[in-house]
Amino acid sequence: MSAVPNWLLRHRIQVEAYEGSGAYGDVYASPVTVRCFLDEQTRMVRAADGADTTSSSTAFCPLATVAPPGSRVTLPEGRKTVVINALRRDGGGLATPDHLEVQLE
């Protein structure tokens, strides 16, 4: 299996990828609609800087999704949140569903 099957991608989120800081603050890409499977469960996760933090939900997205830490995300019900970490889950050719696990505040 090379990707998460489309029939599992039941939700749609809006992702504004974090591109860095500019002279006037943080810079984000234009919003992109991403199909995903959204798991709204609170759990402890490790942020990109190594700090333990609480995640309110996790989006399982296609592997090609661009959502680095700091990106802004709008969930289906309209709640806005921020990416804590984005973890590549690539089986390297094994029969696993390759995806990007996006941990959200």
Automatic annotation (TrEMBL):
Protein name as catalogued: Head-to-tail stopper
Taxonomic superkingdom: Bacteria
